[in-house]
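the two lines:
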Amino acid sequence: MKRQQPQWNTLLRELANKSLFPDALQVYLQMLRSGSAPNAFTFPFALKSCAALSLPFTGKQLHCHVLKTGCSPEPFLLTSLISMYCRLGSVESARQVFDENRHSSKLTVCYNALVSGYALNSRAKDAVLLFRQMREFGVAINGVTILGLVPVCGVPGSLELGMAVHGCCVKLGLDVETAVGNCLLTMYAKCGEIGCARKWFDEMPRKGLITWNAMINGYAQNGLANEVIQLYMQMEASGFRPDPVTLVGVLSSCANLGAHTFGKEVERRIEACGFGYNPFLSNALINMYARCGNLKKARDIFNGMPVKSVVSWTAIIGGYGMHGQGKTAVELFDDMIRSGIRPDGAAFVSVLSACSHAGLTDSGLNYFEVMQKQYGLQPGPEHYSCVVDLLGRAGRLYEAQKLIESMQVKPDGAVWGALLGACRIHRNLELAELAFERVIELEPTNIGYYVLLSNLYTDTGNKEGIINVRMMMRERKLRKDPGCSYVEFKGAFFTMSRMKREEEAKSWGCLTEFQKIRPSVVSFIIPILLHQRKGKLKEKPYGIDFRGFHEMRSCETSK
DNA sequence: GTAGGGTTAG
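prediction for all of em together
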């Protein structure tokens, strides 16, 4: 049956809108073969498919088709062309299309496509310049302009620009659009200004699911896991049903806290909602179980995934590595390569750290070489710190030092810190002092390093050294931060610094009371008492149901 | 019938 031209267009549009891009391009080719001429309603979808599939050559050809068919350069078509070139990384070609059609490009849509294109290609300056031009030329600015522009402000240090854009939104009355609000929220979170993000979140007149997700994931990315859990509970209480995006953020926070019970609860939720086959969620679950120490469960989920991405592999490899099962981690890494997955930088971090934890020095060094020579990956400071750790633990301290000195990128605190840690193990005071000097330049307030050096002085009986470190800490007004406890109790969640806990315990006058029961339980009970005092549970502190304690897990971490 | 956009894992 021969199709008419409009039918071809409809089919093409439907496929592209369902993200079935290869099929859409097939249809385009069939259409040409059947003798139907493409028109201005055909090209936008063919161009979009090309961009989605990263086919620069086909994209260029399509542009030629457009010119050949003599389609009038109307804004819809121009916008599609500009957007395609931007997505394929050729901003210059996009700019050319834009400039060659000056008369039509007065239109907002064309500007929007190019502004977001510059942003997409990390050309912040050009994006802002074009945005300014829009204002000068009196081109209408709408919400979509802002959505395209704001991502350029979402990097640490660009808060000022972001706030200027926010101010602009307010002036134009665009900040009340939910999508714009969400975008600004994400921008603040990505700048690391989580306080601003929260303030804006609280002010936003209309919050949608995406708003909650943006705030939850903003907290998650800034490492504020407790806030994530709290906000998630608040979200449920406000009647919003989570979607996979929400739960990914929540799970990553469970992983960071070692909140096993809560994580299991989230898994049940995932199953109940029918999100079970979402690969993002499976990866987040693997990560959560692995970091909580439940390697079996992590492995089961990993094995059950029909399609495993490099992220899935990295999560399971990292899990084994973290718990000292370096051999399994290395085997899995090799399996991954055999299965045709190309490892990326993060995958190498997981295998390198597995090797260093398990003492597999030679394998680790081999992977470090393979990474550069075979995969052409430039090692970052995170790789160097693994390798320094690897060499250092093996006692090859001077090789580690040489490696640091040969680095192409600037070493960060973790790199020198790894050397310092190794020096402590092998009691090399001279090198430790050098590493300490470097690491303190980079992270002057990280108390861990002072403690490490002080411990080494203690090990070697160097009293003068100990006093020196203490003086330095006093001069810089550094105090050893007390460790923090994370506690789960019947699905509720608590955190509290040890010092605070003791103060609170004294004010309750019940510390000794509980110590009689079981000293290790004290750290669990005090936060619960606090919770009861603040919250709705009006029980007396002594009326806690101790049968619930088997449900608790805790992990002590120190900052 | 067409274009530009916001939240997601290791």
